[in-house]
Amino acid sequence: MSTPLINAADFEQTHWSDKDKANANAVIAFIQQLMNEHDFDSLAARYAGKPYKQHNRTMADGIDGVLSTLRDFIKIAPEFSYEVKRVLVDGDYVSVHSHATLKAKHRGDDSQGLNIIDTWKVENGYLVEHWDAVQSMSLSMRTYALFTGGKVRNQNGVY
Fold first, then answer.
1. Angle between helices 40-47 and 63-76 (to 10 degrees)
2. How much is the pLDDT for 94?
3. Model-level pTM?
4. Sheet containing 114-123: which strands, arranged edge to edge?
5. Average pLDDT of the residues in 50-79
6. Most buried by CB count within 10 Å: which residue of 8, 80, 91, 109?
7. DSSP character for 155?
8. E strand or H helix at 85
9. Residue 101 or residue 150, greater confidence
10. CA distance between the termini of the chain
């Protein structure tokens, strides 16, 4: 199985400033490591002691919250990956619209997986805050969301 690779240059816009490009690159590198390479240890080391405020209520606050959630998820879906469709930058905020799939054979099939829009706040090259909106595309993902979506693990609110 090949690991999907996100090429940041594919999403760069001519009107982006150097800071916009740097922020987009920081987000894309984070997504690549987390969602495609599942390189949790490198992210844990990079973000150790750094703030990371989580607005997805199903994840605990801090970088350990997102890493713990993804570590557990990868146990049931080791081929999980993100295909980035578009990247939008507004200063310190970067939004990424992605198609997430659980199985390699479902990559590119928009009837499977998840339609996800993530937004991060970036400060000094670090992702410091995260919001998302997730739409399940298949019955299996709707069922998974039904059974896992109820526990609130942080008090930050969704906005």
1. 180
2. 98
3. 0.89
4. 53-54, 126-136, 114-123, 93-101, 81-90
5. 94
6. 80
7. S
8. strand 81-90
9. 101
10. 37
